[in-house]
Every structure is written in structure tokens, then in C-alpha cells.
Design goal:
single chain; about 425 residues; Alpha-Beta Plaits; six-stranded parallel beta sheet; Dihydrodipicolinate Reductase, domain 2; 17 strands; Rossmann fold
């Protein structure tokens, strides 16, 4: 039986999961592949800690990555160390040595994916990355292969389990952001430094990849508008329920004529929408395609075994290409290179959306009319209003509005004027509302 040798760089949580799947499911993988997919070597700075995986005694376990990179006996390299460097250098060297690569590194691809895909094409090897978006959810394969006959109209998703857990708890329990974040850290759902997660950066890395797959354009992380969830208050969830909405951190990519719009921000979506039902640490991607229509892909977006499942699936696909001598059979982004072109991105100021606005106002007469007047002067019409009862101690009260669709720049112009009014006590809270995902 033919043997495909695999070298693993990074033996942390995900690396240990990959090793476990390759070793424990060796027979079922062989039955599907028609060849042996052998874990031939592992490189990591720490080769002494117990990962809970029993490795074969003859397996190479080293802290010298050079034992794997460029080794003619190693057919496929798995990169699981994360970050930009040295991951970029390792992947580049493997591709230049005509070793195919599997990675779960969304940050690396969001920043350097275009150059790495070019290296893979030049050297006639494969660079696969299913685990970089959505953990075990096979969304890359869906966009590259299963929907090959479709025009994609939009891709929207809940792509960060930490944020989804926090927002789910805040919505269900009325808890404060800081309190829920601390609990998420205690449970291991959030890092000690959660900035990449809660400020939307991790989600934006993943959206950059999905946008390229959906719309045949080079990866452009810097074109994505990004907002996090740290400013969301328990009161916002209560008002959202009154409007019939739930709050999620959404990654949104839409085709608007010749333009693309890409954004990551807290979003109110109707409580009967499929994405509104995704709670806890789970991820989901909602795709709207012309032939298939709407479809939802849901599952564990992170974790040892879910991510390992996606990595091993990529290994099997590349191994099949090696056996058939058909490397680069599927283009990196699912489109032939000539079809992948730079497309214009719509500026955030030109985005059209509905808006939830929460004003913190001193309890004075005519406040509501003054706010409504400024909104109207900027072309923004009000769909509904919720005003809390009168204050008995001279404190502020909340005035909440849902607008009809308006242009982002018009809203910002209006809020600049409103927030300067003496009767407004704090900056207005803004959450976009999406009903046509």
C-alpha cells in the first residue's frame, strides 16, 4: 500500500488532536484513501510534556523544525503554531521545497495568504486551510467545491465562539460584559488577553478568507470594517427583545453590484432568523446563493478534536491529489487564477442599514422632538420609539429608536450633532440591524 508521510509543526492542543485522529483512526482513513497516511514526525519547542497521545516509539519527535522542512521523505507539512512568524517562513520554505501544506492559521492567511497561494501555484503543490475558518465546519469546501455552480450573493456568520458565548450569556441572564468575560476565561473559552476575540479581529481574519472564496477577489483583510462587543450593555439586549431581535457579533460580506461590502460588528437580527438561534460557543455560516438559495453550516468552531477533524480532511484531500498526480486540481480560492481580480470595496460611510439607537438623555421636555428633528434633517426616518418613564431624581433616561434604512454617513452626521446637545449625557449607542442577510 502506498504511504503518504506527514510532518507536524506545532504539538499544542490542536496538534495533539491531529496526532490522535491520525493514529486512532488510521484504518478508516486508509479505507477511504486507499493509502497509508503516516504521521512521520513532529516538531515543537516542547517535546517532553505529556499531551495524552501515545506516539509510536519509532516516530521522529524533535525540536528542530529543519528535520521536517525540505525533508524529501515528508510529503505534507501541517502548520499549527499560529501567528505570523515564524509560521510564514515555515510555510514558505515548505512550499518552495515542493511540500504541500495544511494550516489552521487564519491570521497568517488573512495577512499573507495571497503570497503563499502564489508560492503553492509556482511549485505545483497544494495549500489547504479548511480549519482556518469555523473549526470543524467544512465551509471552505462548501464554497470552493459544493457551490461551484452558484453565484454567491452574501456570506454572513458567527465566527468566534468566545464572543458568541459572551453575548448569549448576556442576553439570557442580563449579565454585564466584564462579568461574563471573566467566566469565559475561567472556563477556557477566552484567552487571558481576549483582545483579538472581543474586538472582532479574529472574526475579521476569517471573513477576509470567506470573502475571497465567495467573490473571487484577493484576500484583503485591511478592507474590513471591524467593531467589537465590549460596548454592548445588558439594556441593549432587553430593548432588542422588545423589537423582536437578538444581538450577535456578525461577519458580513455582500455583493452589491460591482462592489463588495465587508464588515464585522455587533448586529441585531430577527429572533426567527437561523443565525439568531446559534448560541454558546458554536459557530455558523449563512450563505445566500442564487441556485441553492439560503443555507446554514453549523458546528463547533474551535476545540481540539473539531479542528483536528478539519485538518485531517485536508490531509486526505491532498493525499488523493498526490496519488493521482493532480496537485492544484482545485484552485486555492475555488476560481481559476484569471478570474480572481481586485474588486472595489464599498466604504463603510456608504453602507445602507437600519439602526438601533440608544440615547442617554436628561429628563427634559422636548428632548425627543429635538432628537427626531436632527435625524429628519439628515434624511433618517424613525420606525419606532421606546421611551422610559420619567426620572424622579433628575437622572438620565434612555430613549431608544429603531430607524428605517439609512446611509451610515448620514447617521454619523446626525449623531455628531445630537451628542453635542446639552440634554445628551453620553455618546449614543449604535447597533446595526440586519433583516435581509
Amino acid at each position: 500500500m502506498k504511504k503518504i508521510n506527514v510532518g507536524l509543526i506545532g504539538f499544542g492542543t490542536i496538534g495533539a488532536g491531529v496526532a490522535r485522529v491520525l493514529l486512532e483512526n488510521r484504518q478508516v482513513i486508509s479505507d477511504r484513501l486507499g493509502a497509508e497516511l503516516k504521521l512521520a514526525g513532529i516538531a515543537d519547542l516542547d517535546i517532553t510534556s505529556d499531551r495524552g497521545v501515545k506516539l509510536p516509539e519509532d516516530m521522529l519527535l524533535t525540536n528542530d523544525v529543519n528535520a521536517l522542512l525540505g525533508n524529501p521523505e515528508i510529503d505534507i507539512i501541517i502548520e499549527l503554531i499560529g501567528g505570523y512568524e515564524p509560521a510564514r517562513s515555515f510555510v514558505s520554505r515548505a512550499l518552495q521545497s515542493r511540500q504541500s501544506v495544511v494550516t489552521a492559521n487564519k491570521a497568517l492567511l488573512a495577512k499573507h495568504g495571497n503570497e503563499l497561494f502564489a508560492l503553492a501555484r509556482e511549485n505545483r503543490v497544494d495549500l489547504y486551510y479548511e480549519a482556518s475558518v469555523g473549526g470543524g465546519i467544512p465551509i471552505i469546501k462548501v464554497l470552493r467545491e459544493a457551490l461551484a455552480g452558484n453565484q454567491i450573493n452574501s456570506v454572513c456568520g458567527i465566527l468566534n465562539g468566545t464572543c458568541n458565548y459572551i453575548l448569549s450569556r448576556m442576553g439570557d441572564e442580563g449579565a454585564d460584559f466584564t462579568e461574563v468575560l471573566k467566566k469565559a476565561q475561567e472556563l477556557g473559552y477566552a484567552e487571558a488577553d481576549p483582545t483579538f476575540d472581543v474586538e472582532g479581529i479574529d472574526t475579521a481574519h476569517k471573513l477576509a478568507i470567506l470573502t475571497s472564496l465567495a467573490f473571487a477577489t484577493p484576500i484583503a483583510f485591511d478592507k474590513i470594517h471591524v467593531e467589537g462587543i465590549s460596548g454592548i450593555k445588558p439594556a441593549d439586549f432587553a430593548f432588542a427583545r422588545e423589537f423582536g431581535y437578538k444581538i450577535k457579533l456578525l461577519a458580513i460580506a455582500k455583493k452589491r453590484g460591482d462592489c463588495i461590502e465587508t464588515r464585522v460588528h455587533p448586529t441585531m437580527i430577527p429572533e426567527n432568523h437561523m443565525l439568531a438561534k446559534i448560541d454558546g460557543v458554536f459557530n455558523a455560516v449563512f450563505v445566500n446563493a442564487d441556485a441553492l438559495g439560503p443555507s446554514l453550516y453549523y458546528g463547533q468552531g474551535a476545540g481540539m478534536m473539531a479542528t483536528a477533524s478539519a485538518v485531517v480532511a485536508d490531509l486526505v484531500d491532498i493525499a488523493r491529489n498526490l496519488i493521482d498526480k493532480s496537485m492544484q486540481r482545485i484552485p486555492d480560492l475555488g476560481f481559476q487564477r484569471a478570474a480572481v481580480i481586485d474588486r472595489p470595496y464599498r466604504p463603510m460611510s456608504e453602507i445602507i442599514s437600519q439602526y438601533y439607537l440608544r440615547f442617554s438623555a436628561h429628563d427634559k421636555t422636548s428632548v425627543l422632538s429635538r432628537i427626531a428633528g436632527i435625524l429628519g434633517e439628515n434624511g433618517i426616518s424613525i420606525a419606532s420609539v421606546i421611551q422610559q418613564g420619567r426620572s424622579h431624581n433628575g437622572d438620565t433616561v434612555a430613549i431608544v429608536m429603531q430607524t428605517h434604512k439609512a446611509k451610515e454617513q448620514d447617521l454619523r452626521n446626525a449623531l455628531t450633532e445630537i451628542d453635542q446637545l446639552p440634554v445628551i449625557a453620553a455618546a449614543t449607542a449604535v447597533i446595526r440591524m440586519e433583516s435581509d442577510l
